[in-house]
Amino acid sequence: VRGLKEGSLWDKDVISNQDDLDRAVALLEGFDLVAYRNKDQEYMVPSLLKQSRTQISSDAFNVADCPFYYKYTYSTKLPPGAFDAIVVRIAKFSTHVEYSPVASVFYQMGQTGQI
Questions:
Q1: What Cα–Cα distance (Å) separates residue 8 from each residue in 2, 14, 79, 87?
Q2: Average pLDDT score over residue span 91-106
Q3: What angle do CA 33, 39, 42 make, to 5 degrees?
């Protein structure tokens, strides 16, 4: 319903206690919409980033340190949310992540992955 805030769409609270909150977070994690970053003790939600946020550390995309390269070009656009879901899935297994709406860098055990 356009023009209405989420809170006005339901006649009762969607989350009213800790159990409801835990279930809601589990659903978001299960659908790869958020990833809990245990090291940072925060949730990573790529879809909430503004499209204008494109800053990633300049040394993150260091081609000289990455001898492997693979390029895949989709014939059509990715479906909405697909890039964010991919970022969340990989982030769950990474020790550090730098991400923007258009690029991400993942670190794990001295290795770097870039998309």
A1: 11, 11, 29, 31
A2: 82
A3: 45
Q: Report how far apart, in Å, the C-alpha atoms of 93 and of each of 12, 18, 63, 88 are.
A: 37, 26, 22, 9
Q: What's the token pair of residue 3?
A: 């023009």
Identify the three-state secondary structure at position 42: strand
- CA dist 27 and 61 (Å) reads 33
- Report DSSP state, residue 115: -
- Identify any residues that bridge with 105 across adjacent strands, giving them in sequence order: 98, 114
How far is 29 from 13, CA to CA, in rounded Å? 21
Q: Are 35 and 92 in contact (CB under 8 A)?
A: yes
Mean pLDDT over residues 7-27, rounded? Answer: 85
